[in-house]
Amino acid sequence: MDINDNIESPIEVKISFNKLLNEYENLIEDDNDYIVANAHRVLKIAEDNPILRDGFSDFETFKTHEKEINGILQDTFSPILTKNEIKTASIPYHNYTFNSSERFKTILKTAGADFKLEMKNMPQDQRYIVTCAIILNVCYGYNLNFKRPFYYEIPDANGIMRYYKILYNADFTEIIPKADAPKITEADYNELLDNFENLEMWKEKFPPFSYTFKGFVISNIFDVTDDQSISNIKTSLIGEEKRKNENFMQGFHEIFQSLFGLKSIKVGFSIYNVEEDIFERVYGIGMNSFLLNDLESKSCSDALCEWSYNKLLREYDYFSVSDIDKSFKRSEGKAPHIKALHEQGFKSAIFAPIANDDGLMGILEIVSEEAKILNSINANKLADVMPFIVTAVERSKYEESNLIEAIIQKECTSIHSSVHWRFKKEARNFIKDQMNGKKASFNKIAFENIYPLYGQIDIKGSSEARNWATQQDLSLQLNTVKRILQDASKIEVLPIYEQYVYQIDDFLEGIEVHFQVDSEHQISGFIKNEIEPILKHLYTVDGLKEAIGTYFNRVDDRTDALYHHRKHYDDTISLINKEMASLLDQKQEEAQLMYPHYFERFKTDGVEHNMYIGESITKEDSFNPIYLYNLRLWQLQVMVEMENAYYQMKSDFPVALDVASMILVFNQPLSISFRMDEKQFDVDGTYNARYEIVKKRVDKAFVKGTEERVTQKGKISIVYSQKEDEREYLNYVKFLQAKKYLDTDVEIVELQDLQAVTGLKAIRVSVLYHKNKDDKAFYTYDDLMKEIKA
To answer: Residue 565 above 70 pLDDT?
Structure first.
């Protein structure tokens, strides 16, 4: 088998000791008789074995001439140092080695028979090009600096990865162009300088095996595990999205195991919250805190004893516990950190403060299930890595702060991503004015000539449902109190009890016959101010204690009232809003990919949304009315999908409520501007204000000449004013009918006049529903209700 088999390279490798032998020829003239005699010895070996000077590439020659090769390399591989030096003779950038020192052989043997020696930091696809760069330097006199550190990663007897740096001595090598090798010109060289990744170009100028390599290299290898571990820690901490990476903490454990030379250690973190003086868990995949054990957070004074508290939080100094079992007995289990480690089965530990000039930021925790292997001596290894951990935590806290601000901006303001570029532009101008000493002001942000779209999915009868829930809770609360007072009057006959029962009956009748907005306030005040003091007085009576205790347990602490039916109602509204908003947000991400536009939504008794689309928002010369029509169709389709999603999950809600959907069409472009005081966009101008008036009132409008609301459960209502809008949306309806989204019962109705707005019409059409996501049948609203109840 040949060395060059299965390897694509611009050089044909021949192992030769020619240049080394030339050095021995120079030594013959030396004054030292021993050196001269040794030179004659080496040269005699070469004379008797000319192949060692001429060169060979077959592996068999290594075996047949092993003794002779060892004889030639005796000075280079001193037998005195062979058990200490890590050294090999090899071929550059290949994993094949020969004539290794005893220590290197031992390292490989310890790694196991299955271990395959591979050089790190040398991608396979770059070996060809790097070899070409060597040829440019050696044969053409260029000075390309392409040197990179190369490593071997070899596990030791304990399975801990150790790192070995390779330094090449290439004094005994030569590269010779073959007769058919293309001559490299200055133009070729200049072209190659800008095409490192273009492998085909390099192969064209340096065809495979167009040069001969004669010689060998000496690989001087050094154990740099500590340095590489520190570098790996630094690299790991620099990486983005660490907390989301499943392999991050596993890799981090392995790096620390290499640094300490210990397999049985684990690494954890806890974050210090200075505002509350507590330790908190670091959230992320694989992240753990051994100090907190299974708790989310813990007061520092409860997590540490006084001595360890001062050590970490006052002195910013690390400490170790080499024998946790011994310390646990000595402290009688009263030292909280020792107790926490003992409960988890750890036997030794190191705690190191992560601190900067501003104070403590967190704790690095290193633990082991073996006693004494972590101690105050090897804790000193942390001195080299803590600066990187401190820097990483500083950056993490800064990123978290930015993330918090981003979340606040996303959740609490109306600065949508589509218009964020405009805010950034104004912010840059603001900063530039400040830097130039000018009076800085944040200019008005407005967008002109944009088209609005509005839609809502509204909960029908929400006020009636809320009033009903309130009536039920008040009635239940009054009847409960009434029974307690009636029982009290049997134990202690007092006319005042009868008076309160009379008042309660009066309230109950009022709730039943004529419930008003202020009824809830009156009854709550009566119970709080008059009844509850009596109940607290009667609590000492044995026959009433249990009933009164049950009553107070059922009263909500926040509202100071019985909060049962109202809680079901509030939970239902919250769930509806959450699910509908989530679905709309998810669909919106898809719509933004079609064409960027402004989007905002609001949760009320249902979910409303505004969209604006136009050239001034996208800041590109790309807007076309087709994108407006597409967004209108998308909106209509999504409203139908939201209707379906709602009725499929309706049975999961505590209270059965219906919804009705509406879209408002406004066919004229308008202008919007950002209101700094309200932190939201609003329309500009008197004419445009008409749009806002319609938005606020149209869902409560009646069909002209009737008492019927324009929005109906089971139907989509599309409100408009222009004939062209009617034609456009009837086409959309027809398309969605063909897709079985909508029924065939299309109707066009006129709306009663609103304040300052006349001439509105609406297209109404029934939605077709599915019972669930897998159901292929189509149902109208009435059919769906029958199916659900069946």
So the answer is: yes
